[in-house]
Write a structure and sequence with these properties.
The protein is 43% helix and 13% strand. The chain is of the alpha/beta class and 409 residues long. It has 2 domains: 2-92; 94-408, Alpha/Beta hydrolase fold, catalytic domain (Rossmann fold). Helix 2 (31-43) packs across helix 3, helix 3 (45-61) packs antiparallel against helix 4 (68-92) and helix 6 (185-192) crosses helix 12 (383-408).
Amino acid sequence: MAATLYLVGSIFIFVVAATTWFQVRRIGPLVPVYFFSGWLAGELALQVIAIGAVVTVGFAIAGAFAEPRGVVGLALSLTAWGVLLAGHLRAQGARREIDRFAAETGLAIEGDVSPTHGLARPFRMRRPGVRRLVDIPYGESLPGDKGRRNLLDVVLPEAPGSGRPILVQIHGGGWMIGDKREQGAPLMTHLASRGWICFAINYRLSPKAAFPAQIVDVKRAIAWIRAHAAEYGADPDFLCVTGGSAGGHLTALAALSQNDPAFQPGFEDADTRVSAAVPFYGVYDFLDRAGIRGRQSMVDILAKHVFQCRPEENPELWDALCPILRVSADAPPFLVIQGTHDTLVFVEEAREFVRALREKSRAPVYYLELEGGQHAFEIFHSVRSQYAVRAATAFLEAEHARYRGAEAA
């Protein structure tokens, strides 16, 4: 019995390890399973190996390896651990990608990340000298609010200060789920330790609220943050945005639709400009005009739940919410970050968006592509996550230095 159980478990971990290594995307209903497996095991490879080793010792004591099935299971487990270790080493290879990125951009990026970064506490987001204020309303609760959607948190240094740069974190979740408490913490706590004021915002979700409610709420939050910046020691004139997945889409859209009255009903005169944008694995073209997604199109699910209309029924709305169609010479500086193995948002989509930005924007456009990175790779502490945080920090602080220089001139 012990040998059979161990063999079954070994087959499972072997399959999980495979999802961390191979780029597989067009697999229909298996996409969410493949994503979760590749994401968690890929970023927590050392933890998975350690747990597997402990389990293996237990089965050895139970006599599982006295039978051929147990020996086969052990061989599969060892192979899986090898694949996971190779994936971890590939994540460490982000150092080379960061070096190339620094050389291309001239940005000063912090040095090596420990190979065991996040090993003991990957989900611990507390940091000395940093505090978090929670559940602050940035406006009234509007129709479609499931509760708590008009709230934000502030991540800031414990030491008092003034004139500090602002980062607004926009969570992901397919525009239908998610919360400000769940994403962006590694970047926010890192920046707050360096003197930034970070605001993590909620927004209304579908299907209770349809597009453009989500971007309207992002704009409402930006306007509120700018109006109340001095209360938190922040500079209202330097405000950057970031977010992943759906949050990456809203980040790009907010940056490319600055002061658009169509997304500012009732507060048309508010200043919603942003100084720079760092979208992670965002969706930039709902209609897949470059033919990248093929049969993995998002149109049907978005039409039913998020837009609540078909593209042919309201093409103006669909186009207005596609960041790639809003690219112009006036776009703010961008750093687009993407993993090559993203199962939910294909890497080619990010490349196409960067190409469009570089064709038209007068501002700097940087692109960081991380080998082996799955969707949501930067949500908790891992080696790859930390390198992405350091790249984003270097970009944002360079833009802040440029702003301070222009301000002083």
